[in-house]
UniProtKB/TrEMBL annotation:
This is Thioesterase. Residues 63-137 form the Thioesterase domain. It comes from the Bacteria. PANTHER family: ACYL-COENZYME A THIOESTERASE 13, THIOESTERASE SUPERFAMILY MEMBER-RELATED. Keywords: Hydrolase. Belongs to the thioesterase PaaI family. GO terms for molecular function: fatty acyl-CoA hydrolase activity.
């Protein structure tokens, strides 16, 4: 996230040019997600976004697997990536979030998230998604984003 001269928040949208995430896009404007990540996305061959992160020690729970709150934070990031074309001109918030924890995510795993906008309305956007590790589903979710007003 960056602050404009007037203090307004602006979206960060940068393609990574070096390292293991080269070609992926760093995207967002949320200080908590910046702290909780890093999170990235790219477009697959069909043009659909896929989000990804590599699990680190900071994401783990006491049992040695990814903390549920970290999974939900990554999913919350992903829904805004999936809905980005519906959100270009305004502010928005997560209004509803439903999740199913269906598998454990170990330290060092590449966690991928794919999803879609089910319906994009005037003020609400309905979404769903799945997270996988090595092709195995570990987390499924649905969410609703509420548009809250125009960007200034």
């Amino acid at each position: 996230m960056a602050d404009g001269d007037d203090g307004a928040q602006t979206w960060r949208h940068e393609t990574v040019t070096e390292g293991p995430w080269a070609g992926w896009i760093a995207y967002g404007s949320d200080p908590f997600e910046e702290h909780a990540g890093p999170f990235y996305y790219r477009l697959d061959a069909a043009g659909a976004p896929v989000c990804a992160m590599r699990t680190e020690a900071q994401h783990m729970n006491g049992g040695g697997f990814m903390h549920g709150g970290a999974l939900m934070t990554f999913a919350d990031y992903a829904i805004f990536v999936f809905a980005r074309e519906h959100l270009q001109d305004g502010h928005s918030v997560t209004a509803n979030f439903n999740a199913d924890f269906v598998g454990a995510v170990p330290l060092g795993a590449l966690l991928e998230c794919r999803g879609e906008v089910v319906k994009g309305g005037r003020s609400l956007i309905f979404l769903r998604g799945l997270m996988t590790v090595e092709g195995q589903t570990v987390f499924s979710f649905s969410a609703v984003i509420k548009k809250t007003g125009k960007r200034t």
